[in-house]
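thread: overnight batch results

M.L. [08:02]
morning all. the overnight job finished for the chain we discussed friday. pasting input first so we're all looking at the same thing
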Amino acid sequence: MNDTDKQSSQKISRPESEPDSIPAGENAIRTPDRAQALVFLLILFSITSTKAQAQAQAPTQTSTPTTAQTEEESPGRTSGNYNIQQSAEFGYRDSMIGGNINNYDTFENLGSGFRLFDYTLDIRSIDHRGVFFDNLSFSNFGYGGDPNDLSRLRIEKNKWFDFRALYRRDKNVWNYNLLANPLNPAAFSPATPITSSPHALDLSRRMQDYDLTLLPESRLRFRVGYSYNVNSGPAFTTVEGGTEPLLSENVRDTTNAYRMGVDYRGISKTTLSFDEFLTYSKVDSSATDNNLTYQLSNGTPVDLGLIFVGTSPCAAPVTNAATKPPTVNANCNGYLSYSQVENPRSSFPTERFSFQSTYIRNFTMTGSLGYSGGNNMVTGFNEMISGWASRTVTRGGTTGGPAETKRVSANADWSGDYRVTDKVDIVDQFRYDNWRTPSMWATAETNLFATTPGTGQTGLLLPISTVTPATLATVCPTAPYSGPLCPQHNASSLADVTNELVSQFLGQNIRSNTIELKYDIARKVSAYAGYMYTARTIADFSATFDTGEIYFPGGAAGTLTNHYLAARADCAVVAGALPAACTLNANGSIQEGSPANPVPDAGNNTTRNLYDIHENAALLGVTARPTDMLRITADLIFGYNDNSFTRTSPRQLQSYKVQVRYTPTPWATVSGSVDIHENRDNVSMVNNLEHGRSYSFATTLAPSSKLWVDFGYTYMDIFTQTEICFPDTGSTIFTTPCPIAGATSPLGMLSTYSSLDHYAYADVMWKPYKRVTAMLGYAGSIVRGNTTFLNPMTPTGTLDFNYLKPSVSLAFEIYKGLVYKTAWNYYGYNDAGVASPAGLAALPLQDFNGSNVTFSFRYAF
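M.L. [08:03]
and the structure it wrote out:
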């Protein structure tokens, strides 16, 4: 990225608490002044490594290692009735990343600075008779600037209580610039590449969970809990409207969840439970247009949006590039201001009763009943636009109105496992789920039009008419409604005022049952056969009713015949008369519908649509253990559905899974798996074919405590095709008429997507001396794919890339309980496809590469 890219108005500012900074330059490297710290740590590493070789001792036998297992576990210290164990790892990470920093932050976001890599504290009562608690555990990691921080606390007192608390903070940075990129052509002026994602974000999510169980071992057990989550930060978004402006967004989503439950175990071999869940969420977000990077001839700031369509009069929108900022043609689509504020509020109370029982001999049962009545309300949606859209001759507008959605859900499940004999087992599972989401949105929209223009006033320079239904009779009183304050329309102008009621409904009723017969054919061979039946009923409804659509008169083409342009759009004159639903008012306006007489929009389907789908599937499986060293498992599913709700819902499906695990010696394990899933809905005008296939193997070798090796490989193949329709009437590449009967989009084709992923990993742990542990690792993906690009300028993006991540680490025990560690991680992302197709305004490279080096000390006792 060049310097301009990194300092553009699209960049999301980082909070001051973040230790990282993103320097300018496409190949910039993060190198803060840290030479003294690096020299000191490298000298210390050199000294301790030499000492390790001199004091090497024979190693002892250990199990398969993890990072925490490379050092011997401390026996802890005893204080009174408690044994205390504690460990802490603190150090420094040096990040040296070059290339596309936005992509690195999206994928990894590991910056430089001092870090708390790990801290644990365990306190256990020796005889389970602690004064305040019997066990306490406290663990943390990530503090100091990493994108993921976590603290976990558990305190328990035998037979009295069990308390658990968790805090987590996740830093979610997303700025992959091909997401929502409008892909501006290079031939238009200005040739404006979009070098940062128009939907970039920099959010922090803070999550807190608290759970308390009282009398955990008694017959009557009580549970309470609380969770608080907040997701906040800056982001970018866009909106369609003549052009596509870049909007700065402030995001804040908050959720409060309360849990209460009770368990009763007074019945032999049976547990009865009741839970109450109360979840409340709220969204407080706003968006404004701060990307006013051009100006009009009168000096008014303006945003031409991200897309330059390149047609007259805006093939070359800049009329004077020498001004600061550049001056543009006022007849281009643009925004002078934009703001949006909304505050959705949701509540989801849920009740659930569940049970588990082995009361009946050889028969195990579990089940639950649940009910939820959620509600989502938006009371204050408000959108205000000041701009110009030449296609509708609108100068600005406002929208608003309350919206409400309910979600009512009733669900139940039951499963039973009956052991008929030592060899025969019958398992039955039933599931019921019935939910529905009725919704309503009462819109209130105003479209603002220009008044009679003065000299040189066109497009974005036009003055706005602020006429309302209450002031029309005095501000623009008589025919031909051509006064200086009258709004100017044309025959295709939208309504001046639109009040609508939008009503929607979606629901689904699912009844599903699966029965399986399991049989132990021999001592080391077992098999099962089953049948799964699912009945779905899906209902939907969507209709819009005009409750007050008002058309003001006014415009150069106004005549008595068209009621001075008040008769337009839905109220256009037909056979010399207004439509029956439209009424001419005394002030010259025309109104369609009212709250007492709602008028359905053209094309409304006011009846509820019902779709019945019946799914049938045969289940087969076998498990074989030819020897104690070899285990083979196979699962097969063959299914057929008599209907589909979407174009990608399957009518036929097959699934094949085979897993093999071979352990020739206690220190060697080899495993492999094949997972194939096929979907079909290849009826006429759908032609949907899909498959997902993966093949993998893994090997673990631990011949001694000095050496441990783990490696594996996975190959994944994904493919899908479906007939699609699209409205791109200006396409010069795709010109085939849509083959789907009744489709409103004119063009169509068979769209395909395919992706091949090669993933490999390997890890080696080596202990040349008792106090020294070295690890070498690798993980990487090579992905190649293809799809139908409706826009020929589209880069292949994540369809073709290589992402390689080798690593090396070394740990040395300086003395008992104190370990020094150093590690190196490399990140290499390479866009292997078409990064900048012909005709596209140049984009920055997507590649990034670099290293993270960590130096840390771990102390444990």
